[in-house]
Amino acid sequence: MQVAKNKVVSIDYKLTDGSGKTIDSSENHGPLLYIQGIGNLIPGLEKELEGKKAGDHLKVTIPAKDGYGERNDSLCQSVPKSQFESTEGLEIGMQFEVETEQGELVVSVTKIEGDMVTVDGNHPLAGVELHFDVTVKEVRDASAEELAHGHVHGEGGHHH
């Protein structure tokens, strides 16, 4: 069976940046299971996996635009500490959900200086060229329930 829209795909992967530094890996977590073609993976990787079958191995480079997008500097801004419910324990790297005109956005604290806090709404991998080393482990039909819920159920997937 080939990787195609609405198929459950199980992959082992290693994700590195341009310098070879490991960003993420399935090594200690077991294979990643997802439903092909419904936006569970970044677009560039889904496209590269289309048509592959169990046992296939590929090394692909995904440009930022087909991964987590290019950086958008307008998503970075400095806000007064007074905008936070509590500044106790506030530190660089913390993430918060904020309500914007476009809906909820996760922002990361990137700088704290005096009474001002700089937050960044870009995905941490925005603007990064991604290098994947992937092995397709298994491909199967998604159940009607999995398709309705938009995620894989059972072992390695979501449990209700």
**CATH 2nd-level architecture of the largest domain:** Roll
Spatial shape: elongated
- The counted number of beta strands is 9
Our Rg estimate from Cα atoms comes to: 19 Å
Helix content: under 10%
Question: What is the count of DSSP helices, taking H or I runs of 4+ residues?
Answer: 2
Strand content: 35-45%
Unreliable spans are none
Terminal Cα span: 27 Å
**What is the element string, with H for helices and E for strands?**
EEEHEEEEEEH
Largest sheet: 5 strands, antiparallel
Number of domains: 2
Overall pLDDT metric? 92
**CATH fold-level topology of the largest domain:** Chitinase A, domain 3
CATH class of the largest domain: Alpha Beta
Structural class: mainly beta
Descriptive notes:
- The chain is mainly beta.
- The chain is built from 2 helices and 9 strands.
- Strand 1 (7-16) and strand 2 form a beta hairpin.
- The chain is elongated.
- The chain starts with 6 loop residues before the first strand and ends in an 11-residue tail after the last helix.
Task: Give a quick summary of the entry.
The chain has two helices and nine strands; from the N terminus they run βββαββββββα. By secondary structure, the chain is mainly beta. Strands 1, 2, 3, 4 and 9 form a five-stranded antiparallel beta sheet that branches. The protein has a four-stranded antiparallel beta sheet with strand order 5-8-7-6, with no helix packed on it.
How would you describe this structure in keywords?
160 residues; mainly beta; Chitinase A, domain 3; Thrombin, subunit H; 2 domains; five-stranded antiparallel β-sheet; four-stranded antiparallel β-sheet; 2 helices
